[in-house]
Amino acid sequence: MARVSWSAAAQYDLVNVVRVPAVIDELRDNAEVTLHSVQGVTDDEGIRGKTMWHRGFTHEQERQIGLGTLPEKDGPQAWDYFLFYQRGGWRHDFEVLSVRSVGQVARRALGWR
After folding, report:
1. Pairing with 99, which of 26, 46, 50, 72 sits 20 to 30 Å away (CA)?
2. Where are the domains of the chain?
């Protein structure tokens, strides 16, 4: 389990981007079991310079999504967000820098503002 800290900006994002308390709690919990040092780029994780990103789901949720067995729920879910992070200092393994919705990431990737 990774020791994860959250920057002030990431905490702001949880409140103002995610907004749903249950999803905020799930993202915090998922970060501790999912964040790792990323080596390449896939649809759900990547690295550029020192900044890594990972979709907000656990590896088990990712497996269930791939199999089509993840129970459907109404409203936003943890996998609707990306965590942007970097290696932490001596007290934490990783520091989450920001949280962005899948829509925000897609708009940026497409060059839309």
Report:
1. 72
2. 4-109
Q: Where are the alpha helices (DSSP H) in 2-113?
A: 8-13, 21-34, 59-67, 102-109
Q: Give tens-digit pLDDT for 78-100.
A: 999 999 999 998 889 999 999 99
Separation of alpha carbons 87 and 81, rounded Å: 19
Neighbours of 55 (CB within 10 A): 22
pTM: 0.92
Report pLDDT digits (tens) over 52-83: 999 999 999 989 988 989 888 889 999 999 99
Fold exhibited by the domain 4-109:
YaeB-like fold (3.30.2310)
